[in-house]
Design a protein that fits this description.
Blueprint (H helix, E strand, L loop, with lengths): L2 E3 L2 E5 L11 E5 L5 E4 L2 E2 L11 E7 L5 E8 L5
Parallel strand pairs: 4-7
Antiparallel strand pairs: 1-2, 2-3, 4-5, 6-7
């Protein structure tokens, strides 16, 4: 993760991602977005620049994509 700014994250997709998700992206984190570390709920303020995270996206039938879940993947926090 590159940056946490207010209720948004700026991330850089890794080379293993689908081609469309390899660049830099900004995602808004809205109320109801699940944030967790080792199956334990965390808050957005627990994330720091440089953390390794996984973002699960969902797209509705209208084509709108939102963040469903953010998982902190680092072993220690």
């Amino acid at each position: 993760m590159k940056e946490v700014s207010g209720n948004a994250l700026i991330v850089e997709g890794i080379s293993l991602n689908d081609e469309n998700y390899r660049g830099e992206f900004k995602y808004d984190v809205v109320k109801g977005t699940k944030l967790e570390w080792h199956n334990t709920p965390i808050s957005l303020s627990d994330l720091d620049e440089g953390d390794l995270i996984s973002i699960t996206l969902v797209t509705d039938r209208g084509g709108v994509t939102d963040v469903f879940k953010i998982q902190l993947l680092d072993d220690e926090k």
